[in-house]
TrEMBL record:
It comes from the Bacteria. The modification N6-(pyridoxal phosphate)lysine is found at residue 53. SUPFAM superfamilies: Alanine racemase C-terminal domain-like (SSF50621), PLP-binding barrel (SSF51419). Coiled coil: none annotated. This is Orn/DAP/Arg decarboxylase 2. Its cofactor is pyridoxal 5'-phosphate. Belongs to the Orn/Lys/Arg decarboxylase class-II family. Keywords: Pyridoxal phosphate.
Length: 403
């Protein structure tokens, strides 16, 4: 699997060119190929959903719709976004904590097929809203494992987090659920870790979760139809060429999947690779022994590196144009820190990375920028201009101008 590395020629051809360049570029054709490649090795009958939280742009959703089983959402707003972008036929499942009556009403109004409930309060609330509407909501109970669960960047289960129902409380939750006549139990939901780069360990975790689901169903006399194993398939931002071993993961899991409908809801591994964030260098500085490139852009557009405290992968694309009458500033063979245009020292995308040359006017191309970048960023801080958002495919090119 590749990752998107637009050329300087492509960038200059598709951006507006009336100011310092700042743009997200998405390769929609490769995005679809990515989804197909991830889905293909999975056990027969598996539902591979896209987790909308990773990137909810309508063009991304439309590009993925033919290649995924449906969409996993975590808010009423994401339900509406999917319906507006993809239409009434798209399958939607809903998870996440802190459910409200409005969420449940929207779920019913827009034909969401299943709710993943995370607490007794959420069950009772969903039951009350559904009963008033004369409806029945299929549900999965989200389990927070007893743990600990090693090996991932983020852990949602196996620890004291706000997610799911702790494993020891599942029997009590099932008792409550039996009294919720407007809810229909269909299975269990496990989204325990995020960004697990060890495919064998992740397969072992999922296998243990399947065994737990079967054990709970047998113990409590439940008709177990579905087990949702969440996402968590890893991406390595330190090594863009590395890939999660989906084939090995699927091979290890398949013997344990018989008789169940498996579901996955992956976001990062689907969306990350096939977008780039491109920023023009507008100044170079050396301060107290460190070299800085100041960019037209920053963490208000692409918050991921700051939130994960990593150096995001990038390359500097030389741009020969120089229109000023003074000598063009440059730095040679230096360790460069990429800083944005915000008035905070936390506006940094990479720190002290060796580069052979950087000049004002060159472009910094940050790869693997398609997931948890624009969508999680504080766009209006300081009210800087927004980036262009450009979507490319084999058949068309579209541009969303900054709002």
């Amino acid at each position: 699997m590749s990752f998107y590395r637009p050329s300087i020629e492509t960038i200059l051809a598709v951006t507006r060119g009336d100011g310092p360049i700042c743009a997200f570029l998405h390769d929609l054709s490769a995005l679809g190929e990515q989804a197909r490649a991830l889905r293909a090795p999975l056990p027969p009958g598996t539902d591979f959903f896209y987790a909308v939280k990773a990137n909810n742009d309508p063009q991304v959703l439309r590009a993925l719709a033919p290649h995924v089983a449906g969409f996993e959402v975590a808010s009423a707003g994401e339900i509406v976004r999917v319906r507006q972008a993809v239409g009434s036929a798209a399958r939607i499942v809903m998870g996440g904590p802190a459910r409200t009556e409005g969420d449940i009403r929207t779920l019913l109004a827009f034909g969401v097929e299943r709710l993943h409930v995370e607490s007794a309060q959420a069950m009772r609330l969903a039951n009350a809203v559904a009963a008033r509407a004369g409806a029945t909501i299929p549900v999965l109970l989200r389990v927070n494992l007893a743990g600990p669960v090693p090996g991932a960047t983020l852990t949602m289960g196996g620890a004291a987090t706000q997610f799911g129902i702790e494993q020891s409380a599942i029997p009590d939750a099932l008792t409550i659920l039996r009294d919720c006549r407007a809810l229909r139990f269909e299975g269990f939901h496990f989204h325990t870790v995020s960004n697990n780069r060890d495919a064998a360990a992740h397969a072992a975790l999922c296998t243990a979760e399947l065994a737990m689901a079967r054990g709970l169903a047998a113990e409590h006399g439940l008709d177990l139809r579905i087990v949702n194993l969440g996402g968590g398939w890893g991406v390595d931002y330190a090594d863009p060429d590395w890939r999660f071993d989906v084939i090995g993961f699927a091979r290890a899991l398949t013997p344990h999947a018989k008789g169940l409908r498996l579901q996955f809801e992956c976001g990062r591994i689907v969306a990350a690779y096939h977008a780039a964030y491109v920023c023009e260098i507008i100044d170079l500085k050396q301060v107290h022994g460190r070299a800085f490139a100041l960019l037209r852009g920053g963490t208000h557009h692409f918050r991921l590196p700051s939130s994960w405290s990593h150096n995001h992968p990038f390359e500097i694309l030389p741009r020969e144009e120089w229109s000023h009458p003074w000598p063009r500033p440059e730095l040679l063979d230096t360790k460069l820190t990429l800083a944005g245009e915000l008035c905070t020292p936390k506006d940094v995308l990479a720190r002290d990375v060796p580069v052979p040359r950087a000049r004002i006017g060159d472009l910094v191309c940050l790869q693997m920028a398609g997931a948890y970048g624009w969508d999680i960023s504080h766009h209006d801080f300081l009210c800087h201009a927004r980036p262009e958002r450009i979507f490319l495919s084999s058949s068309r090119e579209t541009t969303e101008q900054p709002a």
